[in-house]
């Protein structure tokens, strides 16, 4: 069973590395095949308060969402040869892949859900610094590496104060959207 947890942690690290160095690092360069992430997904989400209409379109369209699905599917396929030697690890990676796609889509369609359950991803798109909070599904590696930057809450509405980002470890898991409800 420890293999499943290690698979999830591995997937979280791949998520962090890919998001930081490929989707943002290479994706900010004009002419890059990864440009879609910055020029489409971030632009649309930022402009629309986290909502991204492409997540309601069919997944087979070659939009930012279609490219994301193809990338996650490709990364998951790369791990399939490990199934015989590390079955729980591989299942953890495959679970994480599907979980990523589900949570990321839901956060960009149901913005209030995203604020409540994925505040780290809300901060990534809507906070002052879009070059932080690299983990999408869960902010585990961001916590470890100190790249989790939390926006200050303004009242109970969940609005974020521009310029109020500060690196902090979460006071509790509930502060980063983890609650039993």
Describe the structure.
The chain has 181 residues and is mainly alpha-helical. The chain has one domain (2-176). The protein has seven helices and four strands. It has helices at 2-26, 35-47, 64-79, 87-109, 111-117, 119-126, 140-145; strands spanning 149-150, 153-154, 159-160, 166-167. The strands form two sheets. The protein has a two-stranded antiparallel sheet. A two-stranded antiparallel ribbon has the order 2-3. Strand 2 (153-154) and strand 3 form a beta hairpin. Helix 1 (2-26) crosses helix 4, helix 4 packs across helix 5 (111-117) and helix 5 crosses helix 6. It is globular and about 45 Å long. Residues 153-172 have low confidence and may be disordered.
Summarize the topology.
Layout: H1 2-26, H2 35-47, H3 64-79, H4 87-109, H5 111-117, H6 119-126, H7 140-145, E1 149-150, E2 153-154, E3 159-160, E4 166-167
Antiparallel strand pairs: 1-4, 2-3
Label this structure with key terms.
181 residues, mainly alpha, two-stranded antiparallel sheet, 7 helices, 54% helix, 4% strand, globular
Described by strand count, sense and barrel closure, the largest sheet is: 2 strands, antiparallel
Q: How much β-strand is present in the residues?
A: under 5%
Helicity level: 40-55%
Q: Write the element-wise H/E pattern from the N-terminal end onward.
A: HHHHHHHEEEE
Domains, number: 1
User: What is the alpha-carbon Rg in Å?
Assistant: 16 Å
Low-confidence stretches: 153-172
**What oligomeric state do these chains adopt?**
single chain
Structural class: mainly alpha
